[in-house]
Amino acid sequence: MTAPEVVSGEVVSTPAATVAPAPPVLTASGLKVAYPTPRGTVVAIDGLDLTIRQREVVGLVGDAGSGKSTTALALMGVVRPPGRILAGSIQFDGRDLLRCREEELRRIRGRDIGIIVQNPRGSLNPMLRIGKQIGNVYRAHNHASPLEARERAVDMLRMVGINDPDRRVKAFAHELSGGMAQRALIAMALSSEPRLLIADEPTSGLDVTIQAQFLDQMWETVQRTHSAILLISQDLGIIANYCDRVLVLHDRRIVEDAPARDFFARPAHPYSQSILGLQRASAGEQAQARRASSAATETLVEVDRLTKHFPIRGTDKVVQAVDTVSFAIGRGETVGLVGESGSGKTTIGRCLLRLEEPTSGEIRYRGQPISGIAQHHLRRFRSKLQIVFQDPYDSLNPRWTIGRILREPLDLHTTLTGRAKRDRARELLDMVGLDPNALDIRPRGLGAGAMQRLNIARALATDPEFIVLDEPTSVLAPSAVVGLIALLQKLQSDLQLSYLFISHDLTTVQYLCHRVAVMYLGQMVELGTVDQVFGSPRHPYAKALLASHLFPDPTRRRVDRHERETLTGEIPSPVDLPRGCYLYGRCPHATETCADAPQALDRQPDGRLVRCWRATAGEIGDSA
Amino acid sequence: MLLRYVTKRLLIGLVQLVVLTVAVFFLIRLLPADPISRFVGLNPSEEAYAQAERSLGLDRPVHVQLLHYLGLAPSQGTGLLQGDLGDSWVSGSPIAQEIGTFLPVTLELITISFFVAFLIAVPVGMLSATRPGGAADRGVFVYSLFAGSQPEFWWGLLFVYLFFFVLGVAPAPLGLLSPMTSEPAVITGFITIDSLLAGRLDVFLEALHHLMLPVATLVFILSGPIIKMVRQNMVRALQSDFVLYARCAGLPARRIAFYALRAAMAPSMTLIGILYGFMLGGAVLVESVFSLGGLGQYAIRSILAFDYPAIQGVVLVITAISLSVYLLLDILHAMIDPRVAY
Fold first, then answer.
1. Fold for the domain defined by B99-153+214-304
2. CATH code where residue A538 lies
3. Which of A76, A137, A143 is the best residue to mutate to test the B interface, defined by the most B CB atoms within 10 Å of its own CB?
4. Per residue in A52-96, pLDDT tens?
5. pTM for the whole thing?
6. Which residues from chain B sit within 8 angstroms of residue A127, using beta carbons?
7. A165 vs A129: CA distance, rounded Å
8. Of A288, A350, A617, B131, which residue is 20 to 30 A from B274 by alpha carbon distance?
9. Is A174–B247 a contact, with Cβ atoms under 8 angstroms apart?
């Protein structure tokens, strides 16, 4: 633990008033970094000041492109070429890092300041075994023979939680999963026990259950080695759960510096208030009222025992992507699909629009099976069911003007005149909160949030009744997420839209959805209202998933909880599935019976569905 | 893993060799040329013509000729399968033996040239990559533009003029040894190696002296593309995330340079292989300028004489060597970069 005011738990006042602050490890002031480009110099950060104290976990938040990664590197005196540090000073250990000799700086990097970066696999040398790489870093700062360095590498890999480190030291970067590469990187960063660890989005690209494990481990490791951490993340959940203090980077400088609890309770800067908007709104009365009124009257889409297998080429095996999934979505209702990658969420969404043909099972739209719709009627059906994809950039043609992008669905599905189409396109832009006069520009320069709004406008062009939202917020900056969720909600109440909302971000799911289905390995393991599933999950997997999720609330920190609902081991391959319960082998509640007995979805007294006989029998208590 | 990769590559190489052999066999016979009349002269009698056709074996159906050439028709005599490339129609001597005298000259010339070019190009490429736009980088740019824009025989002639005629530091462009020197016994066919094996240091040094200008010419031509390739790969490697991370981890500058060089060398290997294969036949102009009887000269002589077995033999040998070089470099590449063997 770091700052004592967090341990005491109850009341948080300004730390300076009660306890003398620990001495600073690193102090940056007036930092300015710029990148020369063919069109002139781009200043990434300008006049940045920050202080990191001993044994403190400091969070740094900010939008994509706000200069977080530039800051991380600049604090070590490194800039990605061809950038330059133009001004400022970095006080570390009584020296100014920007004014000491290159050799002195080299000794500090990696020994006194360690860093983990966003792209772990790309940051490992692809041509050297990871044990050798960790050893090289260790030997760069310590007197050690190659053999001792190798032993150190094995120890470090064991410490960061890699199974079988004796074998893994011989692995190359491309043989590691993203999570393991990230651990290898942290092993390297911590091998010389630095006094400061800079972690730049250390969990981007990891699944939630693994993300939580990883962050726990990093947090514990650093506690053990008495280091300070600068934890850079867009994810407010991570910040709230692990940080003592929060810095907000906006407009190229630090605009807010506050203890974590103060930051989440009373953000001072308008930008901080905007990124915390979602969390504040979801706690508000409006959201409560919304969820209460979820009783849908009319069923719009029904999924009946949907199964989808993908054959593996060259073998007679199949990947079981979706396994007998049934649910219904009412008019004006939002159903959330949550689960880790590979759980079949996206495949369900694609089957709903007939972008994939189901292996078996039926999907009915207004009572009519969509598999029966002939090819030439499919177009009419598609105009009523639309999809918005995860990556807003990939799903828009950057060479087309906004007007042409919006006209395309109108050309296909309507018989409007050219003038009417332009009017309709303006109207659509207005609906999604974009400038209606932007028809003739190309979307290239827009941010991810505006791009995603444009995607939504295109989906709305044909007056759909139902939209599949496939991780629409996962690449957006926190402030853009808030706006997009509010927009989706407004469109739903204005147009009576139904959504299937696929996401791994439980915070947005909690806010937008009426009901939520938890998926694991192609099966639905729990289906209930948001209050039921989020308030008291019953299925062991749902419990673990929710426990892993880092809600942006510093009063419910994961690191303060004593008993953590966790799963052990890795997700089984969807090719060779376990015979009985799919969670057998990872589940803390498993018994002999679970190994052989496939589990059925059983209706619980409160109306939800749970696929676990022990939960149905009431043998697994509420722990969340 | 590496063994499986090599086996796979060898099998593919074998298939390529067989397909190419058969293809060349038919392609030559598609030429609108009559090799027989080359041998019987103008206005031959019908008898003499038929006689020549028989003696060359061209009276037989094409598939029989092919089977004989491949060595699949034991009644007709030996062929490729027995290691027999056939006899030259011009000289009557075995083609394997003739290639055996011409090939070492070329191999010697281009292998030394590649070695020297590599030694020069890699450090220069690295230097210009570490400071893009710097003086070294601009110098290299001008040089590769300059060297690449003139044909190699012209550079050869210029070098002869400058170093032999004006400066007098190089010997006359008249083969590998001066006519007065007695040649060492032929063991490998490579004069530099044979002279050392025979303990004739004087011959060795003389051969090197004679190789100086042709090698310099080829090095001058070859260095341009190799420098460019190394520079480009090096620039990319220096901008990669793992080099940035190596800096952040405080690795010494020398180790970082080595990381980047290793990453830059791997893709450069491919270019070296392609250039080498090309030079086997493409060094002919330089060989001509310096009166070195190399494989290229033999190939051209055979083509002009419609000497079918000799042409087939040359193509086969060049292909086999190119494939071996590719394989060798691919194995090196796989050893440098473990991702390749997948």
1. MetI-like fold (1.10.3720)
2. 3.40.50.300
3. A137
4. 998 889 999 988 778 888 999 999 999 988 889 999 999 998 889
5. 0.73
6. 259, 262-263, 266, 336-339
7. 12
8. B131
9. no
